Amino acid sequence: MTKPLLKKQEDLQDWQEMFAQWAEEAPEGPLKRYYQAGMIAPQTALQDTPLLALDLETTGLDPSQDEIISLGLIPLNHKIIRCQGAKYWMAKPECSLNAESVTIHEITHSELEEAPRLHAILDEILLALTHQVIVVHCVAIERQFLLKASMKIYGYPLYFPVLDTMDIERQVTFKPWWKRFGRRPSLRLDACRQRYKLPRYKAHHALTDALSSAELLQAQIAYHMDPKADISNYWI
Q: For residue 119, is pLDDT > 80?
């Protein structure tokens, strides 16, 4: 098994230090308490890191204009997925769903009619995220949509450390251009899972995709990462 993913010293991030700074700056309320709870030390071993797989379904892919309509969370570590701790929320958007997004996530207007607005459940979501390193497949989606929501609701950014299974797969799959032959391998969640012979699930349900990302990370750790290495070598 190869372990090629360790970062250079200058690339390491100290999220613990950054959380302490944001705890001083954030406005009073749930977001300040989230930062005050702190983050694990960068020297924490990957195998000892509290992990939480996260997936969102949204009305589109543009955080500046699209909205979160569902969110799924599942706690895990490098060997165990704690399905009994899974959480799932739906959120009624301010704008109407478009036909294209409904085709993808299959969440309808009628299903969202009785759902709360995101501002009514974000405090609860923050509590679930507290002191966790988040596992996602494509950090640009989850982190950016939650950042936008936090700015709108709390007036201050929400940041959190991430293990991005898409980026991990990119690092271990893509070769330098001079060594490439044929098409680049797909980085879609299902395509990444197939490389590890993981079961195929129906995509685009936030809780199922959170489980898919959790399983994928465990496979990546087994094949490519060092569970005893500092988490700072892997989080972004």
A: yes
| CATH number, domain 13-173+183-224 | 3.30.420.10
pLDDT level of residue 111 (50, 70, 90 thresholds): confident
**DSSP secondary structure string, the chain?**
-----PPPGGG---HHHHHHHHHHHSPTTHHHHHHHT----TTSBGGG--EEEEEEEESSS-TTT--EEEEEEEEE-SS-B-GGG-EEEE---SSPPPHHHHHHH---HHHHTTSPPHHHHHHHHHHHHTT-EEEES-HHHHHHHHHHHHHHHHSS-----EEEHHHHHHHHHPPPGGG--SSPPP-SHHHHHHTTTPPP--SS-HHHHHHHHHHHHHHHHHHH--TTSBGGGT--
pLDDT at residue 206 above 60?
Answer: yes
Q: Does residue 1 surpass a pLDDT of 50? A: no
Q: Is the pLDDT of residue 178 over 80?
A: no
| Over residues 4-29, mean pLDDT | 85
Q: At 68, phi and psi to the nearest 5?
A: -80, 130
Give domain limits for the chain: 13-173+183-224
Give the pTM: 0.91
